[in-house]
Amino acid sequence: MIALDTNILVRYVTQDDSHQLPSVMRLLNRRGETFFIGQLVMLELHWALQHHYDWSRSEIAHSLAQLLTIQNASFEEEEVLNDAISAYNHGEDLADWLIHHRAVRHGCQSLASFDRDLQKTYPRFVFQPR
């Protein structure tokens, strides 16, 4: 199994680099090979598509969801990523959703944050330290 870094997925999704794209496609089309894609890589991909490529929320959500359908790819906590992408597609922040989900999953009773959007999204869970 080969782990993929964000820049490989950026090339694959955006197809914006005619020099690197053929190398990416040869790698991804290796017969019998499987690839691992971690949650942090997916978050970085989201960030790159939003901030460097100025893609819309629906374009990003569609691209992330399409990646999850790749047969020879294994995703870190794929079910969680699928839920996160769905939440993102319905207006939630992808990173905030994952932060909240992981905190709850690890038994946290609350989350300290200065992020006002995070506080508004999860008012019973997130608090601002004083």
Main traits of this protein?
130 residues, two-stranded parallel sheet, single chain, 2 domains
What does this structure look like?
There is one protein chain. Helix 7 links the parallel strand 4 and strand 5 (126-127). This protein has two domains: 2-91, no CATH class; 93-130, no CATH class. It is elongated. The protein is built from seven helices and five strands. The model has no long low-confidence stretch (mean pLDDT 94). Helix 1 (6-14) packs across helix 3 (39-51), helix 4 runs antiparallel to helix 5 (78-89) and helix 5 crosses helix 6 (94-105). The chain has helices spanning 6-14, 21-28, 39-51, 57-67, 78-89, 94-105, 116-121; strands spanning 2-3, 35-37, 73-75, 111-112, 126-127. It has 130 residues and is mainly alpha-helical.
Layout of helices and strands:
Elements: E1 2-3, H1 6-14, H2 21-28, E2 35-37, H3 39-51, H4 57-67, E3 73-75, H5 78-89, H6 94-105, E4 111-112, H7 116-121, E5 126-127
Helix pairs in contact: 1-3, 4-5, 5-6
